[in-house]
Amino acid sequence: MVKKIKSSEIPKVTYRPPVVVVLGHIDHGKTTLLDYIRRTKITVKEVGGITQKIGAYQVEVTIGKRGEKRKITFIDTPGHEAFAKMRGRGAAVADIAVLVVAADDGVMPQTKESIAHARAAKIPIVVAINKIDLESANLKRVKGQLVKEGLIPEDQGGDTPVVPISAKTGEGVPELLEMIGLVADLQEVKNEPQAVLEAVVIESSLSPQQGPVATIIVKRGTLRVGEEIHAEDVGGKVKALIDDQGRRVKEAVPGMPVAVLGFSKVPSVGAEVASGEKTLPTVKLEAEKPTVEQPRVQATDLNVVLRADNQGSLEAITSAIGGIKVEDKGVSILLSGVGQIVDSDIYLARTGGGVVLGFNVGIAPSAKMLAEDFGVGVQTFTIIYELLEAVEKLLHGAEALKKAEIKGEGEVIKTFVLLSGDVVLGVRVAAGKIRYRDRVKVLRGEEEVHQGRVRGLKRGPKEILEATEGQEVGVLIRPQIEFKVKDRIAVC
Fold it and tell me: What are the residue boundaries of the Tr-type G domain, all occurrences included (predicted)?
């Protein structure tokens, strides 16, 4: 006889609040929209009615006819530059992007950049056509422009939700929030408060009164007051957690934004936060638990961020590049635009595993430093055919642009998973030196599968600053992936 299981006995899957980033062209109403939502949807409980500006906030919305309540977390730092900075450091920041497009201006250069960054992050886009209260609003024209960018509205047979709104009057904003909730349901971001802590720094500063302050969003696990934590190479102990209404709380659960007090210094925006001390524990002879290899899909196209001095040159180069094919491999343009190469171009190229090419343009000093730090190939040209030749060479498998000389190599001979969840690599140095804070590539066979930075080195129980040829050492690399024995580590 088969025993019937009561519905009450089946574990109910719950979902954490989705994290939403608002992107779009300057002056199209990103900040106005965020301010309106914050002002009308948050129940202020502090004396005097003042909420805490921590860079993110949560709202509660009603979804569907059944009136289901859902929380949504908004990152209150609009703009693709900030988002690209987080993404460029490997942080999985947002679950959904809201693209704000003005109903009078339509799709503009930064709109296209925002679309590129959202696509690189592989998150769904909800379009909010703003300023519908203006007489010059033209929804039909804007939707036509969106189609040209590959965002086909649902009412035209596509899968892109498009909601007309006025962030000034509030018209359409409830419908936008409901749409975000519906898209979040399709994402099925599970609520896992018991998991190993995963959080991301979205804002950081040095307060004269409180010291280093970092706003984080918890993605998995639970952060509690008194815990030892680290954000890459910055450690600390949680002295206080402050929510978006200025209240001190004892813990932060998945989807919740909080300001964290207790870091030893200001952590970087986009840094991934984990439990435990930042120092690398002693590597044991046996792994604490086995690692699981995660399959990786090998890319075939060359991903390119393209910049040119004018629109005519940009169109000519884009057309010419589109016709280049080498053994079924072609060029995928992540983003193209007019003007010098800037920081967000480097972040996007790194996220998309691509290179940056410029024609008759310069590179901003900060972007140059980022490219060197991240190992992103950048090259500028003054003759179009030389740019096209470089593209062909890259498609033929030539070495990456401006690739740094390899300074050290090692082979992974063992992997160890610590109680904190971090994976430490047992590495035998085969050539050169591997130093603390070196940027390294992880090679699996002939394929580069990851880039990161050495955040800890140990030989036996002793922490060291460098490992030389022939030594066997414990290496902690961040950000982390599913490492595998026989992976090779190459300093770049």
Answer: 15-188
Distance CA 241, CA 249 (A): 6
Q: Which domains are delineated in the chain?
A: 19-187 (3.40.50.300), 198-275 (2.40.30.10), 302-400 (3.40.50.10050), 408-491 (2.40.30.10)
CB 92, CB 79: distance < 8 Å: no
Whether 30 is catalytic: yes
Q: Tell me if residue 300 is catalytic.
A: no
Q: How many CB atoms lie within 10 A of CB 133?
A: 14
pLDDT tens-place string over residues 265-312: 988 888 889 887 654 444 433 333 333 333 333 345 788 999 998 888
Q: Say which residues have a Cβ less than 8 Å from residue 65's Cβ, sequence separation at least 6.
A: none
Q: Can you say whether residue 318 is alpha, beta or left, with left for phi > 0 and alpha for psi between -120 and 50 degrees?
A: alpha
Cα–Cα distance between 319 and 314 in angstroms, integer? 9
Instruction: Compute the half-sphere exposure of residue 468: CA atoms within 13 Å on the CB side of its CA.
Output: 0
Q: For residues 488 and 475, is the Cβ–Cβ distance under 8 A? A: no
Q: How far apart are CA 439 and CA 218, in angstroms?
A: 27
Identify the active-site residue in 28, 30, 278, 458: 30
Q: Which pTM does this prediction carry?
A: 0.65
> Taking a C-beta distance cutoff of 8 angstroms, is the pair 104, 90 a contact?
no
User: Can you give the pLDDT at residue 297?
Assistant: 32
Question: Which of 25, 28, 80, 441 is an active site residue?
Answer: 80
C-alpha–C-alpha distance, residues 99 and 93, integer Å: 16
Catalytic residue among 14, 27, 190, 284: 27
In this structure, are residues 248 and 283 in contact, taking their beta carbons and an 8 Å threshold?
no
80 is catalytic: yes
